[in-house]
Amino acid sequence: MKNYKYSEITPENIYNKRRNFIKSFGLGLGSLTLGSLSLLNNAHALKNNSKLTSYKDIITYNNYYEFGTAKDDPYKNSQEFKVKPWNISIEGEVESPMTLSADEILSLYPSEERVYRLRCVEGWSMIIPWMGFSLSKLLNRVSIKTEAKFVEFESVYDPEQMKGQRYPVLNWPYKEGLRIDEAMHPLTTVVTGLYGKTLPNQNGAPLRIFVPWKYGFKSAKAIVKIKLVKKMPTSSWMKASPREYGFYSNVNPNVNHPRWSQASERVIGGSLLSPRVETQMFNGYGDDVANLYSGMDLKKNF
Ligand code: MTE
Description:
alpha+beta; seven-stranded mixed beta sheet; five-stranded mixed beta sheet; 12 strands
C-alpha cells in the first residue's frame, strides 16, 4: 500500500480514488450511492469539459458578498462563521408551515452526488461534485397551496458575523426567487456538501440552493427562509440593477449582459492561455428544462 504524503491527500484525490474503486468493481456510477438522476447529471457535466474543478479552486474562488467582494474574501472571512444551531423556515402559501433545523433536514433527506457545472454571470465556470437532494422533497413536506406561484429564498442576515453586510453593496438579506415549477424541478438542489464532505462556509454552509441551468447568483447561500408566494419576488440582484439582472437568468449564450457577451466562458483552473469554451443554452441542461419555457421569449424574460 502506497504511503501518501499529506499534500497528496486532497479531497479530490480521495474522491477520485473512491470513483475508480466504484468503476473497477463494475458497479457503475449509478448503483452505489448515486441515484439515476445523478448519473444523468454526470453525463451532462461530461459533455463539454469533463475535468472536475479542484477542491482548492472551488473553496477559494467564491462570490459571497456578505463576506466581501473579492474572490478570496469569502475563504478568508468566513472560517469563524457559526452554522450551528441553524433553522430554516418554510412558510407563506402552504398548508403546514414549519421550521426545521439544518441537522433535521440532513437526516431526513440523504444526500447524493450531483456533478453540475456552475456558470457565473461574470463569464467563468466550474464543474463541482456537489452533495445534495432535490428541493422538491422539502417543498412537498409543507403541502403547497394552489395560490403559490413562486418561491422566495432568503439568506441569513447577521452583520455581526458578516462584515460585508455592514455596507449597502446589495440589498440585505440576499434574496432570490424561482417560479414554482422551476423550484419543483428535480435538478433544483438543496446543497449539503461537495467532494463528499460537508459544505464549506464560503460555499454556503450549512445549506444552499443550486439551480444548474441558471447563472450562479440564482443559487442563494446559507438560506434561512423559503417562502411560497403569489407574486414574482424581486431578488437582491434585480433590485441592484434591473437592466442587467432579470428574474429568470437562465444561462443563455444568445442574450448578452448589457456590459459583456455571454457566448463563452473561462473554465476555472485552466492556464491563462487556455481557450474559453462556448457557453451552452441552459448551461447544457436544455434536454431537461427547455420545456419549462416553451412559448416564452427568453430575450424579454432574461
Ligand atoms: N448567496 C449569497 N447569500 N450571497 C452571495 O453573494 N453570490 C452568488 C451565489 N449565491 C451569493 C450567493 C453568486 S454571484 C454566485 S456565482 C454563486 O453564489 C457562487 O457560488 P460559489 O462561491 O459556491 O462558487
